[in-house]
Amino acid sequence: MSAPAGEPPAPVRLRKNVCYMVLAVFLSEQDEVLLIQEAKRECRGSWYLPAGRMEPGETIVEALQRVVKEEAGLHCEPETLLSVEERGPSWVRFVFLARPTGGILKTSKEADAESLQAAWYPRTSLPTPLRAHDILHLVELAAQYRQQARHPLILAHHHHHH
Q: What sections of 7-160 are H helices per DSSP?
C-alpha cells in the first residue's frame, strides 16, 4: 500500500521502551575467557561475561567499551558481532567478540557497584556459580569464530593446469 500522494512516508520509530544490552566475549590466545564477578544483590558473587545496558545517546560500541571498562577495568575494541539476541519485543542483546587494548584487570580491591572483580578462566573450566548459563553457547560461538579465523576456509582455489 502506498501513502496518499503528497503525504510523506511515516518515519520508522524505534520502540521507546526497548532495552538494548551489550555483552562482551574475550578469548585469549591461551583459550581463556574473561569473566566478571557480579556485585548486584540478587546475583552477588556469581560469574558472568561483562554485560550491561546501553544508555541514551551511546553508540553500541561506546556502550560495549564503557561496560567492559566499568566491570573488568579493560579498554577494548570489538572484533566481530557474534550474535544478536531478542527476547520478547523489548529486549535486544548485541554480543561481541572483543579484544583488550589496555587498562588493568579489576581486582577485588577495586570492587564496586559494577562488579566485584574480573578474572580470566580456561574456556573448558569456568567458575561456579555462573549467573546464568545462557553465556555458554556464546563462548562456544566465539571459539568457533576464532577457529575459522585462524584456519581460513579455502574453497575453490585449486587451479588445474592443463
A: 60-72, 136-150
Render pLDDT for 67-117 as a digit per residue (tens, 0 to 9).
Answer: 999 999 999 999 999 999 999 888 999 999 999 999 999 999 999 999 999
Distance in Å from the first CA to the final CA of the chain: 57
| Cβ–Cβ under 8 Å, residues 42 and 34 | no
Task: Look up residue 94 and give its amino acid.
Answer: F
How many whole angstroms from its chain centre is CA 161?
46
Q: What angle do CA 105, 110, 114 make, to 5 degrees?
A: 90
Select from 153, 129, 124 the least CA-distant residue to 43.
129
pTM above 0.90, yes or no: no
